[in-house]
Amino acid sequence: MIRVLLVDDEAMIRAGVRAILAADPGIEVVAEASDGREGVESARTHRPDVALVDIRMPGMNGLDAAAGIRRAAPGTGVVILTTFGEEEYVVRALAGGADGFLLKTGDPRELLLGVRAVAEGGAFLSPKVARRVLDGLDHGRSTGRLLSRERVGELTVREREVLSLLGAGLSNGEIGRRLFLVEGTVKGHVSTILRRLRVRNRVEAAVLAHDAGLVADRGGAG
């Protein structure tokens, strides 16, 4: 059972997210919080597998809450809930160790996929978020895609295969099963990919994979 913490100051949003998650019998909402500080304390108390955190909240915002949750419960994956046009916040959240980004207006199926991917150690980005966020990671809107392709071109064929699946939100175990590799080998490839692409974490690598064209967009995103 995947245990989830919801952190959002809007009760209606929490109710909607909770209803979507209830459609998956393998996911359970174990706690809710209406602000960032309460979210950090709930994470410390309940140790959920995944925390879904709104990026804009009064008091402690989602960026600070995400970082606080990672400190309070290092085993908890953090997924940021955002609205379209807030990609500058998402870029800042990468430094706080967020594992995923989802649009509040996106396809409900992406919420379920994202929670499962992050719970299993993967990263997950709404494709529309990924495309817009990359401009904050590269040096210009006009050259971002070219730079991404050039950086990916430095990888081996196998590393590009791993990066493509990482960008699709798969965990190390899922990547291993898809490519017939043991999980330890996948972890080694991921570490090498992060170093060679000069990115800080799996999320940045996934964003770059999207922009380099290694990951096909899933239809239906909001």
TrEMBL record:
SMART domains: HTH_LUXR, REC. CDD domains: LuxR_C_like, REC_NarL-like. SUPFAM superfamilies: C-terminal effector domain of the bipartite response regulators (SSF46894), CheY-like (SSF52172). Residues 3-119 form the Response regulatory domain. Keywords: DNA-binding, Phosphoprotein, Transcription, Transcription regulation. The keyword Transcription regulation applies. This is Response regulator transcription factor. The lineage of its organism: Bacteria, Bacillati, Actinomycetota, Actinomycetes, Streptosporangiales.
